Amino acid sequence: MGATLHVCITCRAGQEPVEGMPCLGARLLAALQAGDCPEGVTIRPVECLSACNTGAAVALSAPGRWSYIYGRLAPEDAPDILGGAAAYARAPNGLVPWRERPVIFRKQSIARIPPQEPAP
């Protein structure tokens, strides 16, 4: 089963919207889509991750695995986010060893959520 990288496309990170300018979350999605999506990872835009005070935010999830929410991200973090998503996709239970996580995933984690169903 593959992993999903959910990207909040409505994240403004506390910034007022500027007419004609995509919000921070939409710019993060564009940067991620412009990069090399890791094997086994699907990038999926979502309307809101309810991490408004710590946006821009992404979440990683997969059936039978721990899920994570990360915040305080920017478009220039896209390579590290994609690297972290690749490590997550390879981890059978979603638990990536600490030293194998990108620094932004070590320092900018908002939540870790246990699997809702047993691993396949």
Overview of the molecule:
The chain has 120 residues and is an alpha+beta fold. It has three helices and five strands. The protein has helices at 24-34, 78-90, 103-107, and strands at 3-8, 41-46, 58-61, 67-70, 109-113. Strands 2-1-3-4-5 form a five-stranded mixed beta sheet. It is globular and about 45 Å long. The chain starts with a strand and ends in a 7-residue tail after the last strand.
Count the strands?
5
Strand residue percentage: 15-25%
Sheet of most strands: 5 strands, mixed
Mean pLDDT score: 91
Structural class: alpha+beta
> Which range best describes the helical content: under 10%, 10-25%, 25-40%, 40-55%, 55-70% or over 70%?
10-25%
Helix count? 3
Low-confidence stretches: none
N-to-C span: 8 Å
Rg over CA atoms:
14 Å
Strand and helix order: EHEEEHHE
Strand order in the sheet with the most strands:
2-1-3-4-5
Net shape: globular
Task: Spell out the key features of this protein.
120 residues, alpha+beta, five-stranded mixed beta sheet, 24% helix
Short description:
The protein has 120 residues and is α+β, with helices and mostly antiparallel strands.
List the helices and strands and how they pair.
Layout: E1 3-8, H1 24-34, E2 41-46, E3 58-61, E4 67-70, H2 78-90, H3 103-107, E5 109-113
Parallel strand pairs: 1-2
Antiparallel strand pairs: 1-3, 3-4, 4-5
